[in-house]
């Protein structure tokens, strides 16, 4: 009698099942094991790609071909037949790129890509229940959507708009020639970013494939003024090792901290109804901190894979050090030490924030902030928790900005006061972020309402009171801040 297939959730995946024994051994869902395995293979493939398929040894066509083939294989390995969604979207949008008029390319590409992504998000909600997914194929689809829309707008900038109508950045990234089919596939499906991103610009990617990437970035930062008299050849090895060490720490935290404090703890009856307010608030902070390592791991490893292939060089810093953070999606130190909601958000999912700015905020004629928020919400998905987080985030951002404008300059007259201000705002920021993003990780509406009711909607109420009743200081007070800083610096010099 044939053995029944394993019923464990860890076995449920549409991708390859060859690593199921390892999944059982580690107690980690199979789709997550497949993801890590693909990224580790991609890391070794990236080193091989940089050394043995370097631009000096092979043609751009060969590099494009190998990058695409590896990427397609990784997608099929991880997602099985779900990968068809990715390929269908790519082919449809290439058809738009070839057949549509220049003025319609960004419009059609945007609505087709976002529409297809939204349909897939909705189908996953109705086919599967909250948090119980066989294989979450939306991640690669979200990255591809970013790239499709980015490329469409940059082609339109290069072929359909006058140079004087473009911003400096739009002019730098504008594409004068439509990509070939191979270039299009390689940009969207290359093995370095197809699984976990990040989004990047077509010009940067083709320059990398053709061997012009580092030289181009050095020219952008005027490398001769940085003290280099001959063209340097920076190696990514140091940056890769550093990022791999960070991913190892994140993995260890995931296997310990995340498993010890799962998000389901927030839905536990003893937490919601029995613990006192301060205990709930502190425990919420711990659980939200425990949910971060998986993002730190995935994004930092993806960054390291690109660097290992020689992609991601951003130039030379003020100290003459080579920087490999062009594709970095987060700055962990600035996230964990953020003293404002704005500072936190600017260092989290960096490439997505850049994408939102380039395809929406800078281009829409009306209500850019509101429309950018709507696009961000739709891109993330249709779980109610996402919208709770974004709406709460708007209130918190406005309230934090009001408080900062009214009171920050009082604390700039001495180092001691500034330190007190930084410590207090750090604690408030971390707790506010934990409160705001809790629905994002809980996904469903019922536990979100239950959690916020147990916390008396305190941050919503405080934020509304600040926005409605705290007076906005006159502009003269706002201008006193740099004067105070200058006076402090003058005293130090004296």
Automatic annotation (TrEMBL):
Its main location: endoplasmic reticulum. Signal peptide: none annotated. GO terms for cellular component: endoplasmic reticulum membrane. It is a multi-pass membrane protein. One of its GO terms (molecular function) is 1-acylglycerophosphoserine O-acyltransferase activity. It is found in: Endoplasmic reticulum membrane. The keyword Transport does not apply. GO terms for biological process: lipid modification; phosphatidylserine acyl-chain remodeling. Keywords: Acyltransferase, Endoplasmic reticulum, Membrane, Transferase, Transmembrane, Transmembrane helix. It comes from the Eukaryota. Pfam families: MBOAT. The chain crosses the membrane at residues 33-53, 65-82, 110-132, 240-257, 364-380, 386-403, 423-445, 451-472. This is Membrane bound O-acyltransferase domain containing 1. The lineage of its organism: Eukaryota, Metazoa, Chordata, Craniata, Vertebrata.
